[in-house]
Amino acid sequence: MLPPPTVADTTEFDRLLTEANLSPDAPVLADKGYSSMKNRTTLKERSYIDGIMHKAARGKPLTFVQRLMNRLISSVRYRVEQGIGTLKRGYGFSRMRYTGLTKGNMEFILTAITFNLKKAALMART
Description:
By secondary structure, this protein is mainly α.
């Protein structure tokens, strides 16, 4: 079930984890919007690896280790975000053409297949 557009996805962290059906010890990567003690505790209770980026507070800059962790997390998230950006820019996937979850999922799957086939063809050439 999708939340209404007026609800921020950062408030749906617990529900997202439940629906993701991840195995224990799976890394959960997230941006600074999810950085809270509540979310970090939730990850620890469920035996997930905390991959939430750290956020500096006013007058309390990040430590060297926290900055290093953010850089490592960003290097992984970058690859995912890059693919999503390509789907939005190059394949017009900023809006769904169809209504309904089933048709929307099928549209995404077909677009992702096209994206991956094109990427594989480019990789085969080199």
